[in-house]
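Hi F.,

I've been meaning to write this up properly since the lab meeting, where we talked about keeping a consistent format for the predictions we share between groups. The idea is simple: the sequence comes first, exactly as it goes in, then the structure tokens exactly as they come out, then a line or two of notes. No screenshots and no reformatting. I'm using this chain as the first example so we have something concrete to point to.
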Amino acid sequence: MRQIKYFIFSLLLLMGITIHPNAATTLSTSKSQVTKGSSFTVTVKASSVAAWNLHVSATGPVKGCSLNVADSTADAKNTTKTFSTTCTSTATGKITIKLTGDTTNAAGSTSNISTSKTVKVVSKS
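Output, unedited:
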């Protein structure tokens, strides 16, 4: 009997979690490897968000690779937003792109964002 109660409680808890969608924010790069002097695009996609405060920064042999966006929807409803920036490699090595910030969905749930990607820079052949 006790196991049945736990099973039912677990089911109800799982159903409650799936009813309220969470925001998902992804970081992607157009290339995982570039040659010195080449450009690539960094894209941030925030899904099911009503407000966002996102920052992209990069370390390593790179220039022009930053993005700062903060805003909200006028109707406070969830939407999907996509932001991008162009980065140019300046020397061989490794570029680390970091996404930080937070998003809030229409239900008021806030998600802290912290993720990174690496792009390898090789010399021209």
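Notes:
The radius of gyration is 20 Å.
The chain is about 15% helix and 60% strand.

If this format works for you, I'll send the rest the same way.

G.
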